[in-house]
Design goal:
Strand content: 15-25%
CATH architecture of the largest domain: Alpha-Beta Barrel
Low-confidence stretches: 2-18, 448-454
Radius of gyration: 43 Å
CATH superfamily of the largest domain: EAL domain
CATH class of the largest domain: Alpha Beta
Mean pLDDT: 83
Number of helices: 25
Shape: elongated
């Protein structure tokens, strides 16, 4: 369309009698108009000289008008034109009228009758001129492109978000043409590879020249695989940037085929060095002790298993090292000094080991080593070197009269059928002999004082406990926890314990087999058995707000198990045990062994409504600090402060302090080892709400407690 016309009659009208040719022309014109209407196009027909314009019914419908509402004014469309599009639309018509363009073509917005704006594509041009070549008539069509423009806008926004996401993620884009063997990298890809952005194609061979020599062959081969598989491939490799800097790269690549073998590889690239380092750090932490850098117990067990498999071809020695007077160092100089000493011991062991040897901190102040046998030298030589280095070390803090040392036991393993626990038990047995025969020495298995077989006894005890789990000789016991001054039915709570029934029928107390289970890495399995058995058998009694409340002790090994909470949650749900009727008792020692794991477990348990109690509270220097770190419900005062409470003003002061802190934090307090009425009365006077001990209840089979609980519940 063109501005500046004047209103007049419709162009091309005549009162002259039409000839047959005229009628044919009109018929053809009518067909074209109907075709345009069918296509949803709006037709305009401008008479320049008269200043009038014909707007078709389709044009009227497109803008929501009736045909009789449209004036024949050539400038009418200008009244509907969006102000922002006015200049461009008028300029398009004027350029065509001036002969500067072949046609009118512009996109613009017109106001619909209902007030909204619609986008139209306007196309047209001169169809008639006078003798002087001046334009007399222009004809054109307008197409509603609102949907297309909306889609374009959405695509623009999507692309903008996509580019923003790529930018934020540090991701680069690239493609490689198979036929021309040319590649294109965007600016971020150049940056990732440590290069300035170069316009145009990337030089041939640049990428391969930057690949790490050890990764080059695999990286090139794997990049070509999507052409065969048709799938998107994720791969990682290293590059060497200018200056020798090694970076880890991750690429997503896909082959986009065209004709025949032609096509392009397209992909993304990003620097994942920090993520890789983090993954390596996590993998390292999963196998290593954080304090010493040596292997942890789980990793050592794997290494010991592997060594035993080839022991007949490659015999080795296993060593068990236990520090002498370490407790004295902790008591006199504090835990920080103890940690420094353990770290120094780890360094000493690492320094003296041969490359093929491995060492681990099993827990506390106990270490283990696997070392191949060396021709010309006995296995005791390694132990003697470690002892010599420890003797030379200045641990920086006094330990009283005794200096920190070590007792070491070793055993030669040549049998591939020996159980790993028995192999370690031999070294442990020798270590015990070294400690019993004077400490600070290295003893071979079978040497030393006769009858000193604690390690083997412990190993056999663990084996007995494992067998007892399978043949129902491990028994569930429990001890009630009372609200002081109230019958047990008010609290409904008890601590789950266990007893091992020997093959002769005698009951073996937990103090005889639980330490052995912890020493040989079986504590987590034992705890799981206790929790599963109690929930499976008595979970139905723990249902509802008036259900039985069971407390479970968790060892350090158990807390370190990353799958612990999922296991407990599954067992509780399957047994229909109310989560709020489950209590977990965690000692400070267990928590400090793996604080991060303990913290994760406590938060997961509390989120599901379970209760958590800090056991043996007050036994360590960090007890009060743990109240800030763990969202616990209650604390259980260490029994050492309760046994002689009536006769010790100091113990009474400790109990008052614990009570005040607990009450300030909104926590319940449980006193254990209540042995007499005088202690019970004094605890009540001190404001302690809960108690546990032989004076209130002696441990008994859990099923008997449950039987009485049923009777209590039946009475209502």
């Amino acid at each position: 369309m063109s501005a500046g016309s004047r209103e007049a009659g419709l162009p091309g009208r005549s009162t002259v009698m039409m000839t047959e040719k005229d009628e044919d022309d009109l018929a053809r014109k009518d067909v074209w108009l109907r075709a345009l209407e069918r296509a949803g196009l709006g037709v305009w027909d401008l008479n320049v000289e008269a200043g009038t314009c014909y707007y078709s019914p389709g044009w009227a419908r497109m803008l929501g008008f009736e045909l009789n509402e449209l004036p024949a004014d050539a400038d009418f469309w200008l009244t509907l034109l969006h102000p922002d599009d006015r200049e461009a639309a008028i300029a398009s018509g004027e350029r065509h009228m001036a002969g500067q363009s072949e046609r009118i073509e512009t996109e613009m917005r017109l106001r619909h009758k209902d007030g909204r704006w619609i986008w139209v594509l306007d196309r047209g041009g001169i169809v008639e001129r006078n003798a002087a070549g001046e334009p007399l008539r222009l004809l054109g069509v307008q197409t509603d492109i609102t949907r297309r423009k909306g889609a374009e806008d959405r695509l623009i926004q999507l692309n903008a978000r996509f580019r923003l996401a790529l930018e934020a993620s540090g991701t680069g884009m690239w493609h490689h043409d198979v036929i021309t063997q040319t590649s294109f990298w965007d600016g971020r890809t150049h940056e990732i590879f440590g290069l300035p952005a170069i316009p145009g194609d990337v030089p041939t061979g640049l990428w391969t020249s930057l690949l790490h020599p050890e990764d080059r062959e695999n990286a090139v081969r794997e990049h070509l695989m999507p052409q065969e598989t048709g799938r998107t491939l994720r791969l990682r490799y290293r590059i060497v940037r200018n200056g020798g800097l090694v970076r880890h790269i991750e690429t997503l690549t896909r082959f986009v085929p065209e004709f025949g073998e032609a096509g392009q590889f397209v992909g993304t690239v990003r620097d994942v060095t920090e993520a890789w380092l983090h993954e390596e750090s996590l993998a390292y932490a999963a196998r290593h002790d954080t304090l010493t850098g040596l292997l942890n117990r789980a990793a050592f067990d794997e290494e010991l298993n592997a060594a035993i498999e080839t022991a007949q071809e490659r015999p080795f020695a296993v060593y068990y090292l236990d520090l002498d007077y370490f407790k004295a160092l902790n008591d006199v100089a504090g835990h920080a000094a103890g940690d420094r000493a353990l770290s120094a011991i780890g360094t000493i062991i690492t320094d003296v080991l041969a490359p093929a040897s491995v060492a681990a901190r099993l827990g506390g102040d106990e270490f283990a080593i696997i070392a191949p046998l060396v021709a010309g030298g006995g296995p005791e030589a390694l132990g003697e070197r470690i002892l010599a280095r420890i003797a030379e070390e200045d641990f920086g803090e006094p330990t009283g009269a005794a200096k920190l040392g070590a007792s070491i036991g070793h055993a030669v393993i040549m049998d591939s059928t020996i159980k790993p626990a028995d192999a370690l038990a031999r070294a442990d047995d020798a270590c015990y002999a070294a400690k019993a025969s004077g400490r600070n020495r290295c003893v071979a298995f079978g040497e030393g004082a006769s009858g000193l077989t604690s390690g083997l006894t412990a190993a056999r005890m663990v084996s007995e406990a494992v067998d007892a789990m399978e043949d129902q000789r491990l028994k569930l016991y429990a001890q009630q926890i009372h609200i002081l001054g109230e019958p047990w039915s008010r609290s409904r709570r008890c601590e789950v314990l266990t007893r091992l029934e020997g093959r002769d029928g005698r009951l073996i107390p937990p103090g005889a087999f639980i330490p052995a289970a912890e020493r040989f890495g079986m504590a987590a399995r034992l705890d799981r058995w206790i929790i599963r058995s109690a929930l499976n058998r008595f979970g139905h009694v723990m249902n509802g707000p008036a259900g039985l409340v069971l407390g479970f002790n968790l060892s350090a090994q158990t807390l370190s198990d990353p799958g612990l909470w999922d296991f407990i949650d599954h067992e509780a749900t399957a047994a229909k045990a109310e989560h709020t009727n489950i209590v977990f008792e965690i000692t400070e020692t267990a928590a400090v062994t793996n604080f991060a794991a303990a913290e994760r477990f406590v938060h997961a348990a509390r989120e599901r409504g379970c209760r958590v109690s800090l056991d043996d509270f007050g036994s360590g220097l960090s007890s009060f600090d743990y109240l800030r770190r763990f969202p616990v419900d209650s604390i259980k005062i260490n029994g050492d402060f309760i046994e002689d409470l009536a006769g010790s003003a100091f113990d009474q002061a400790i109990v008052r302090s614990i009570r005040d802190v607990a009450h300030a934090a909104g926590l319940n307090v449980v006193a254990e080892k209540i042995e007499n009425e005088k202690t019970l009365t004094l605890l009540a006077d001190l404001g302690i709400a809960f108690g546990q001990g032989f004076f209130l209840h002696r441990p008994e089979p859990l099923e008997e407690i449950v039987s009485r609980f049923h009777g209590i519940a039946a009475k209502g």
